[in-house]
Amino acid sequence: MPPDLSLIYGYKGGPGHRPGWVRAIARQDGVLAMKAILCDQFGGSEVMRLAEIETPAPGPGEVLIRIHAAGVNPVDWKIREGGLARLFPCKFPLIPGWDAAGTVAALGDGVTGLSLGERVWSYCRKPEIQWGTYAEYVVMSAYGVAPMPAGFTFAQACTVPLAALTAWQSLLEVAGLRPGQSVLIHAGAGGVGGFAIPIAKWVGATVIATAKAGNHDYVRSLGADHVIDYSATDFVAATRALVPDGVDMAFGTVGGEVLTRSYEVVKPGGILVSITDKTDKDLAERLGIRCKYVFVKPDGGHLRRLAGLAEQGILRIPEIVEMPLSRAAQALDLSRTGHVRGKIVLTIG
């Protein structure tokens, strides 16, 4: 069992003190322990181990979250294998995981707007990759933490932050999608696509999505106006048949040749946004369109907006496969196959 931080941390407040939580009691050996999945080097499932390490303490402007569920994303096994080492500095031992849902266990100096015990969710990416969410506790900047949607379970909530923030920031913050515009969303049944479709419909856009035939009903239920079976139809020709002048935005959630050909479906003045491969600015310029590569950023304000959409039923929670923290290696290997419908969730305490 994780330590009871209501006993370990004491409240500091009153006249002359800023609200905050300070370490008050330690175990006899001086260490407050938590369970976590550690990687001591890059590699496959063999580099992952369940260990007991020191529980972190929040600094000024930070929140200590007691994690009840952590979302598993493809980026997690890419980190495990060293695939993001060129983008972000990594340090060992390394705890994978960026999605978390849990309760506020402690507040650092100066944190406002959150309270002890509050149910919260967060996309816990930091400038340096080391202390992730496959653990009983994580420290995160308060800027990236927000209250969970009312009525959500921890398992449901932890499936949302990374994927939904990616969709929100790509469609609204970068592309500036507006009512009456059109958008092609690749992999509509996928993690990001499954949130991008309802967000685009909420904005008032016409949505064209790609998906395998067996997922068409599901993708339409998310709000897609048109669905293209990319395995049986040329998606460029099919999109142009629906929107002869081209779409206002193409959302590249699939890389390689699919992304390269997606430039062809964007109208002059439109934009292609990629979350997989770097964009080709020379090609975009020749076609008279814009392009942008997006790597999602933590943002508690955006999470609060997404919580509102979730509470209205606009965002649909994917199917969930729950596994205990001790099976994190198997969870990443399963994610790596690419054959999981919905999301894998690690349950933690």
DSSP helical segment count: 11
The Cα radius of gyration reads 21 Å
Question: How many strand segments?
Answer: 19
pLDDT averaged over residues: 91
Q: Beta-strand percentage?
A: 25-35%
CATH H-level superfamily of the largest domain: Medium-chain alcohol dehydrogenases, catalytic domain
CATH names the topology of the largest domain as: Quinone Oxidoreductase, Chain A, domain 1
**Which runs of at least 5 residues are low in confidence (pLDDT < 50)?**
6-28
- CATH level 1 class label of the largest domain: Alpha Beta
The gross shape turns out to be globular
* Helical content (DSSP H or I, runs of 4+): 25-40%
CATH architecture of the largest domain: Alpha-Beta Complex
Largest sheet: 7 strands, mixed
User: What is the string of SSEs from the N terminus onward?
Assistant: HEEEEEHEEEEEEHHEHEHEHEHEHEHEHE
Give the count of structural domains.
2
The computed structural class is: alpha/beta
Termini separation:
7 Å
What does this structure look like?
This protein folds into 2 domains: 185 residues, Quinone Oxidoreductase, Chain A, domain 1; 131 residues, Rossmann fold (3-Layer(aba) Sandwich), CATH 3.40.50. The protein is built from 11 helices and 19 strands. 45% of the residues are buried. One of its GO terms (molecular function) is oxidoreductase activity. It comes from Paramagnetospirillum magneticum (strain ATCC 700264 / AMB-1) (Magnetospirillum magneticum). InterPro entries: ADH-like_N (IPR013154), Chloroplast_QOR (IPR052733), ER (IPR020843), GroES-like_sf (IPR011032), NAD(P)-bd_dom_sf (IPR036291). Pfam families: ADH_N, ADH_zinc_N_2.
